[in-house]
């Protein structure tokens, strides 16, 4: 059981930091999945680099990544957790560590997305689209 909780925690960290950095939008329960052993994975990457959906000029996505009470309950081993609990503090530290590790490789990351511009993806076609990564 604890291995699954740890796997969930680590994949939740990766998902949170990854979607934040790449500006992956339109995250909801229909496109956030979980494997039988506790890993989170995603489908539907139609909105990236901060290009979120709007309706009547209002942005649908209002947070940089989704972290539900249910996610926190799993991280808390089945118990609701507070924002200053040990589990949430550990989650925040792991997110900061992951972010800083990716920050160290930001030039490589930006270069890879620059190369992908030639693929003419709708949300990665101009130099301005890369601004989200800078």
From TrEMBL:
SUPFAM superfamilies the record matches: Protein kinase-like (PK-like)
PROSITE patterns per the UniProt record, alphabetical: PI3_4_KINASE_2 (PS00916), PI3_4_KINASE_3 (PS50290)
Entries under InterPro entries matching the protein: Kinase-like_dom_sf, PI3/4_kinase, PI3/4_kinase_cat_dom, PI3/4_kinase_cat_sf, PI3/4_kinase_CS
Domain PI3K/PI4K catalytic: from-to ranges: 1-134
Top-rank lineage group of the source organism: Eukaryota
Coiled-coil positions: none
Key words, A-Z: Kinase, Transferase
GO terms, molecular function: 1-phosphatidylinositol-3-kinase activity; 1-phosphatidylinositol-4-phosphate 3-kinase activity
Keyword Chloroplast: no
Signal peptide: none
GO biological process: cell migration; phosphatidylinositol 3-kinase/protein kinase B signal transduction; phosphatidylinositol-mediated signaling
CC annotations in GO: cytoplasm; phosphatidylinositol 3-kinase complex; plasma membrane
Designated name of the protein: PI3K/PI4K catalytic domain-containing protein
Naturally occurring in which organism (per UniProt): Teladorsagia circumcincta (Brown stomach worm)
Organism lineage string: Eukaryota, Metazoa, Ecdysozoa, Nematoda, Chromadorea
């Amino acid at each position: 059981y604890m291995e699954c909780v740890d796997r969930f925690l680590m994949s939740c960290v990766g998902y949170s930091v990854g979607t934040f950095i790449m500006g992956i939008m339109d995250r909801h329960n229909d496109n956030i999945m979980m494997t039988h052993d506790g890993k989170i994975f995603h489908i539907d990457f139609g909105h990236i680099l901060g290009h979120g959906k709007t309706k009547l000029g209002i942005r649908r996505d209002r947070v940089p990544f989704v972290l539900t009470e249910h996610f926190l309950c799993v991280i808390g081993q089945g118990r609701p957790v507070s924002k200053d609990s040990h589990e949430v503090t550990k989650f925040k530290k792991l997110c900061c560590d992951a972010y800083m590790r990716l920050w160290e490789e930001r030039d490589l990351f930006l270069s890879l997305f620059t190369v992908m511009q030639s693929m003419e993806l709708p949300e990665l076609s101009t130099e301005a689209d890369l601004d989200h990564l800078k």
